[in-house]
Amino acid sequence: MLVKTFQAYIRMASKSGQVAAGFRKFVFILAIIASVYPPAIAAKCTSTFINPNSESEKGLFRVEIRKGQRRTISGTKRSYTLYLPQPAAGLPGPPFPLIVIAHGFLMSGTQQGNNSLYFAQRGIAVLSPNLTRVLWGDKNRVDNIKDVIDQLCWVKRQSESKKSSLYGMIDKDRVGLTGNSSGGAVALETLVQAQKQKIPIHAFCSMDGAPWDKSWSYMPKLTSLKILSLRAEPSICNEHARMLNFLRSSNVSFDDIKIIGAHHCDAENPTTLRCMCICGRSRSQYRELFQRLTYLFFRDAFAVPRIDGQNKSLSEIADDLEHAGKVTVRFNQQGSTKVCGIHDRPNDE
């Protein structure tokens, strides 16, 4: 039904020469639907456990998935999901590094569920907060950023409290941020605000992120950390690789990997029909590449022990994939405040 509605809008708009207007109207309708049906908020904290269940997962961590809610600094009740590797004989023990992963526009943390579980099974804890879905308007955006930082600081405090079941589980010196689509914008702005507040962030990965204008002015002030731009083919949904301009306008180096043939929705796992109607088809092989390369980036950035039989580094695997024609790779890109403008398209996107 959603596909037919979208196609009807395109046909109607085409007849009047207003395809772009029809597209915007369709997205606006989706936004209204999303605001009427917000992400579900758990009534209480619940836990489930996921065991490695196949030969390919042998030797990986058992994972506790905690779902809960708490009132954040903005006064909003936010739901969250926390993916925790469980200590086990023969596997590296806690404290574990932590990734905060932000979901995309009109979505929820569910769309990063498979990725989060994959990371946790390999020894990286993941915090997946549900954000305000309708991100238009500066107040909603500011509240999202404040609340992501608040959730992160709360998890770190819990890990430092002997009264908490999280005591000793999280390594405060190995914290990373990532997100897809507008979640990439949230992650980047969270990084900006965290650095302003002297909250240590050690690694940042943009999963085909589409940054906000407000982050631009701070980019030259960004202090050094490990950064990866992992992206799909340029499109309207990733604003034609706009994240490259933002990273290049900083004074820090970063790595850039483009997955050849991938679409914007491939950064989600699982993705949705809603995303594919707007941003193109998603395929499992591309979702798996986003998942695997994101994990390898954080694994290497945090010096996480290699327990899944993959002994090559991210750079070695990326080189292999480039030789196979699956990615294009540019390591150690140097930022410069004179490279481009905020609305310019990268000439090598």
Q: CATH topology of the largest domain, anyone?
A: Rossmann fold
Fraction of helical residues: 25-40%
Topology as H/E string? HHEEEEHEHEHEEHEHHHE
Strand order, main sheet: write it out: 1-2-3-5-4-6-7-8-9-10
* Shape-level CATH architecture of the largest domain: 3-Layer(aba) Sandwich
List the helices and strands and how they pair.
Blueprint: H1 2-15, H2 19-36, E1 46-50, E2 63-71, E3 77-85, E4 96-102, H3 113-121, E5 125-129, H4 138-160, E6 170-181, H5 182-196, E7 203-209, E8 226-231, H6 242-248, E9 253-259, H7 273-279, H8 284-301, H9 314-323, E10 327-334
Parallel strand pairs: 4-5, 4-6, 6-7, 7-8, 8-9
Antiparallel strand pairs: 1-2, 2-3, 3-5, 9-10
Helix pairs in contact: 1-2, 4-5
